[in-house]
Write a structure and sequence with these properties.
Layout: H1 2-15, H2 35-65, H3 72-99, H4 107-118, H5 122-145, H6 160-181, E1 183-185, E2 190-192, H7 197-231, H8 247-282, H9 290-314, H10 316-329, H11 335-347
Antiparallel strand pairs: 1-2
Membrane topology: Multi-pass membrane protein
GO cellular component, one term: membrane
InterPro entries: GPCR_Rhodpsn, GPCR_Rhodpsn_7TM
Length: 353
């Protein structure tokens, strides 16, 4: 009985939209992995999880530790980091549960596990949070650089908490129908949406549109306007800019825009296979696309882990802040890096990363 439950519980992860889908259930796929392949996948999985949790935790720590890093842009990047950590931790919990032959739960506990753990529906919430945050980042940069005089539409450190709270509330509200209908099906021995299963698949398709088409349209417009102003008509960072920007400030602005565009591109590239896989589920043909399954699994997790590395390579502020933290952890003097970080923030008027 427990063996059957374990197998069905594992299978339900893919049937109900888990970001890692069948990472632990490759035996159910047309392709049977060898023991070496399973070990490689397991090691890769845990490396991504550990690196992602540590890296995103450092991002949050940096913004909390250094007053010079407390900008609207960085607060939004912290929100992305929080969403990424949530995805990684819930995925790790799901992985551990699937690899342990635990006793069969029942009643309210089983229902709770179906809604929040076994199906990893939390990942859809965090994906929505990331997409909405990246959209707000583009909107914030657009109004800071292209429309700086329209103060009423600016995102500031005073109102950023309301925006972040709103993002999470919108994401949770959009996914609530999935939480509400998910439960354990005693006849089929796995978690499902019951009689509303087909309707929920259609609803998921709508979420994918919200997660891709709408944010992409807004982001594309905002960054196209920024790029046009920066590189074509010189209204942003031009040599005769009305803001009187120094060369260093101009460089910081361009690097910031490059960083945010890179983050957005990485997110959408990582999400595309996952979105396609969910759409294919409606046609019940997903079992034919083993490569797409694994691509969606690991790209989604990798996206949650790679952002801190992007900050390190693209942002001098984060690079210096990370050095300060590492030197303090190793009990080494970090006065030079700390003074550089403060000086860089003082000499630039741009709300940089």
């Amino acid at each position: 009985m427990e063996t059957k439950w374990t197998e069905n519980r594992k299978m339900s992860a893919f049937q109900n939209n888990s970001t890692i889908a069948n990472i632990t259930t490759s035996a159910r796929l047309p392709h049977r992995s060898t023991q070496i392949e399973e070990v490689v996948k397991m090691v890769t999985f845990w490396i991504i999880i550990i690196v992602g949790v540590i890296g995103n935790s450092l991002v949050i720590t940096v913004v909390k530790m250094f007053r010079s890093m407390r900008t609207t842009t960085n607060y939004l990047l912290v929100n992305v980091a929080a969403a990424d950590i949530t995805t990684l931790l819930f995925t790790a919990i799901l992985y551990l549960i699937m690899t342990i032959n635990s006793p069969i739960p029942s009643g309210a506990l089983l229902s709770f596990l179906c809604k929040f753990i076994y199906t990893n529906t939390i990942s859809i919430v965090t994906l929505l949070v990331t997409a909405l945050t990246l959209t707000l980042l583009a909107f914030e940069r657009y109004h800071a650089l292209v429309k700086p005089l329209i103060a009423s539409r600016r995102v500031t450190t005073d109102n950023i908490a309301y925006f972040i709270t709103g993002i999470w509330l919108i994401a949770i509200t959009l996914v609530t129908p999935l939480f509400a209908t998910l439960d354990y099906d005693s006849d089929k021995h796995h978690c499902s949406h019951g009689d509303a299963n087909y309707e929920m698949m259609i609803y998921i398709d709508c979420l994918i549109v919200i997660l891709t088409l709408v944010p992409f349209t807004v982001i594309a417009f905002c960054y196209s306007q920024i790029i046009y102003g920066m590189y074509f008509n010189n209204t942003i960072c031009g040599s005769k800019s009305e803001r009187g920007d120094t060369r260093k400030e101009t460089k910081e602005k361009r690097r910031l825009v490059t960083l945010l565009i890179l983050l957005t591109v990485v997110f959408f590239v990582a999400f595309i296979p996952y979105g396609i896989l969910l759409i294919l589920k409606v046609s019940k043909v997903n079992h034919r696309y083993v490569f797409l399954q694994y691509a969606s699994q690991y790209l989604t997790l990798l996206n949650c882990s790679v952002n801190p590395l992007i900050y390190t390579f693209q942002s001098s502020s984060y690079r210096r802040a990370f050095k300060v933290i590492m030197k303090k952890m190793l009990c080494r003097d970090a006065t030079y890096e700390l003074s550089e970080l403060i000086e860089m923030r003082t000499r630039t008027s741009v709300r940089s990363v």
